[in-house]
Write a structure and sequence with these properties.
With 67 residues, this protein is an all-alpha fold. It has a single domain, classed as lambda repressor-like DNA-binding domains (434 Repressor (Amino-terminal Domain)). α1 packs across α2. The longest helix is centred in the middle third of the chain and has 14 residues. It is elongated. It starts with a helix and ends in a 23-residue tail after the last helix.
């Protein structure tokens, strides 16, 4: 897990501790940083923790070739 924490932290430019706080839904992280970490999780292809998925869990994206 620490490799993943490090990768997400590097992508966002924050510490691994900050990423851990976001993943565990702990206080002490600004809303903008929290959103940046969650976005980085999506971009890097990691699954969000269940309690942080919210409404996005119901969205499905499709990539279709030209018809």
């Amino acid at each position: 897990m620490s490799k993943r924490l490090a990768e997400v932290a590097r992508k966002v430019g924050v510490s691994e501790a900050t990423v851990s706080r976001v993943l565990n839904d702990k206080p002490g992280v600004s809303d903008s940083t929290r959103e940046a970490v969650l976005t980085a999780l999506d971009v890097l292809g990691y699954e969000r923790p269940t309690k942080l998925r919210g409404e996005r869990a119901r969205l499905v994206g499709l990539v279709l070739p030209e018809l």
